[in-house]
From TrEMBL:
GO terms for molecular function: glycosyltransferase activity. InterPro entries: Glyco_trans_1 (IPR001296), Glyco_trans_4-like_N (IPR028098), Glycosyltransferase_grp1 (IPR050194). Residues 199-337 form the Glycosyl transferase family domain. The keyword NADP does not apply. Keywords: Transferase. Residues 21-179 form the Glycosyltransferase subfamily 4-like N-terminal domain. The keyword Transferase applies. This is Glycosyl transferase group 1.
Length: 373
């Protein structure tokens, strides 16, 4: 560190910008803010996800594109191993590792003399897509990161309790964040996908079992009405689940699958939705929910602990995995806008607790704590 300028090397993410995933969104928002404070930030990307490998800087952040196999069981481990070796060449003040899988490499980084910060985004071993051996590896990554990192950041109180129990150490709770958006009046993208403003339910998620999109499709097909369901997302790795989900959606002309969308297209579907639904079985702290709240949308979410940690009225939860209850709650909330009190509560909550500028300051304070130790 020179004159307070910290050199940070980041791994554990597929990359930035505009690459799908909660960790990716987190990094895309956080690191330009840290770079804007005068720090040097290097993000190791997975080359196969990068739209233009010729781009080596974005938002004041240096991008280092590294090989990663497009095989879900190997991708994170191989990429993080290569990233740690690359980080040693860069010689950062801080190596910041995101997510429990990549944290398998935290002991290696420490052996190479690096100071490491880990961010725990959630117990990934609870995701339904992993088999038993993979879940054991992810649990090992969680333990190695929690025990060997210099400092540990968690994105929710629930994860804090988990790490304290397993690794017997204190953590820094630094939430995910969201920016208050500029809602758009434009509807040209909506016209291309055949939906009308205010006449559709929106879900934004990857096509993986733990997101519960099949449950939402099942519940929606039991509902009669002149509104549609728009699902924005896709699969990173095509699976039997994702193929079956696409077949289910294709069989109903009231269901619209947009694929991955960003920018103005995503802004339009958020700006004009009538209801946002998050039917997840597993989350860390859901950025998609925070984004929906930032647009002032009525929301309906599963009653898992991560969603419960966001301060919502009881009527905005349904029993996780219960399609009839989801159907019942959609019918109750459809065409029911937020009250003025709810809108004010959402806005105040987001500004106070889920503010990216605050999150950037808190993260830098963790770096400074490591360097002063």
């Amino acid at each position: 560190m020179i004159d307070g300028r910290i050199k940070i090397f980041v791994t554990g993410t597929r990359g930035i910008p505009d690459i799908s995933g909660g960790v990716e969104k987190h990094c895309q928002e956080l690191y330009p803010l840290i770079a804007a404070q005068g720090h040097d930030v290097f993000v190791a990307t997975r080359k196969s996800y990068v739209n233009d490998p010729g781009v080596t800087a974005w938002g004041g952040v240096w991008l280092i594109h590294l090989y990663a196999p497009r095989k879900k069981s190997l991708e994170a481990a191989v990429h993080t191993f290569l990233a740690v070796l690359k980080a040693r060449q860069v010689n950062p003040d801080i190596l910041h590792v995101h997510a429990v899988g990549p944290c398998l490499m935290v002991p290696l980084a420490r052996l190479l003399g690096m100071r490491v910060v880990m961010t725990h985004h959630g117990p990934d071993y609870e995701r339904q897509k992993w088999n038993k051996p993979a879940k054991l590896v992810l649990r090992l990554g969680e333990w190695l990161g929690g025990c060997f990192a210099n400092e540990v950041i968690v994105i929710s109180r629930i994860i804090e309790t988990l790490v304290q129990k397993k690794c017997r150490r204190p953590c820094h709770v630094i939430y995910n964040g969201v920016r208050l958006p500029e809602k758009t009046e434009k509807t040209d993208y909506l016209e291309t996908i055949g939906v009308s403003p205010g006449r559709y339910i929106l879900a934004v998620a990857r096509f993986v079992p733990e997101k519960g999109l099949d449950l939402l499709v099942k519940a929606f097909k039991e509902i009669r009405g002149d509104f549609k369901l728009v699902i924005a997302g896709d699969a990173d790795h095509e699976t039997t689940y994702s193929r079956n989900l696409k077949e289910e959606m294709a069989g109903d002309d009231r269901i619209v699958s947009t694929g991955y969308i960003t920018g103005e297209a995503l802004n339009q579907v958020y700006s004009h939705a009538g209801l946002f639904v998050l039917p997840s079985f597993h989350e860390g702290l859901p950025i998609a929910l925070l984004e929906a709240m930032s647009y002032g949308l009525p929301v309906l979410v599963s009653d898992i602990p991560a969603n419960r940690e966001v301060d919502l009225p009881e009527e905005r939860f349904f029993r996780c995995g219960d399609a009839p209850d989801l159907k019942k709650k959609i019918e109750a909330l459809w065409d029911k806008d937020l009250t003025v009190d709810e809108k004010n509560h959402f806005r105040n909550l987001l500004a106070k607790q889920y503010n990216w500028d605050k999150i950037a300051r808190q993260t830098i304070e963790v770096y400074e704590r490591v360097l002063s130790g």
